[in-house]
Amino acid sequence: MASQTEKGVLKDYTRAIKIQQVIRFIVCILVTVIALLPIYFIVVNATRAHVDIVKTPASFIPGGSIVKNFNTLMDPDAAMGMYHSNFDLLVGYRNSLFISGCATILSVFFSGATAYGISVYDFKFKKAARTIILAVMMIPTQVVSVGLLQFMMKIGLTNNYLPLILPAIAAPATVFFMLQYMQSSFPVDIVEAARIDGSGEFRTFLQIAVPMLKPAFAVQAIFAFVTNWNNFYTPSVLLTNNKLSMKTMPMMVAGVLGIQKSVDNGVNYLVVMLSVLPVVIIYLCLSKFIVRGVALGAVKG
């Protein structure tokens, strides 16, 4: 009797696990569809004509007007020349990639170094440093934007990319994430072993810590790149000369979407799709590190 009872309990337990797995799988599918559906509609509408979008705003079937929409976007005479005066694809990609790339490298490297120093070294204000980092995270960018603009005007750095790149060195949210990751996945003993072997502190960070923290660096690189790529507020505040050659991609997209005299929804969706494309490519290139980081966190947990 006891054996049969144990078999029945085991069977019920196995069935419950399978039901949970099915439910989790369905939830993951739903979340994936909800996340990808807006992007799919953007891509589909970028291939459709303005008249078709007005008649049927949401369509799952792509159209055949993507070349026409692209030619309209690039035509100097289209929409009374307003597209041409507000949008230049190569210039937008160049400016945004330069700003986002430099800011991402600085943010990830110096945030990783800061988190490494706080985790590895013991000093008097170690706990206070963590508290200050959390406090700075709570300050919105808009609160300090007026002071930042006034300061940049005094030192002559308006209409310059440096104020958009150098502040990325101090990224409290990135430091906080790296701290949490290092606490769970970085063995401090390996640093002591490197010191015994005669390795310098900076060499230890570059040759030991950085390779071990690749998943965390990759995740934060994606977040930092997306944040800087999508940043419209700060460039619009600091780049005051309104020259097309200085504008970032979000500024150009805002300029096109703000055209009221001659609206072409197909062109508008195409502009949005072109602005999203580099972010998708960066994610696809670094997604394997995210999966590896999640798997490592699960093993360590």
Question: What can you tell me about this protein's structure?
Answer:
By secondary structure, the chain is an all-alpha fold. 76% of the residues lie in helices and 0% in strands. The chain is built from 15 helices and no strands. Helix 3 packs across helix 15 (265-300). The chain is flat, with a radius of gyration of 25 Å.
Quickly describe the structure:
The chain is an all-alpha fold. The chain has helices spanning 2-46, 50-55, 66-74, 82-86, 89-120, 126-137, 141-155, 162-165, 172-185, 189-196, 201-212, 214-229, 233-238, 249-257, 265-300. The chain is flat, with a radius of gyration of 25 Å.
Run of helices and strands:
HHHHHHHHHHHHHHH
Taken as a percent bin, the fraction of beta residues is under 5%
Number of strands: 0
Q: Major beta sheet, specifics?
A: none
Mean pLDDT: 85
By DSSP (H or I, 4+ residues per run), the number of helices equals 15
State Rg.
25 Å
Terminal Cα separation, in Å?
Answer: 39 Å
In one word, what is the shape? flat
Structural class: mainly alpha
Low-confidence stretches: 297-301
Proportion of helical residues: over 70%
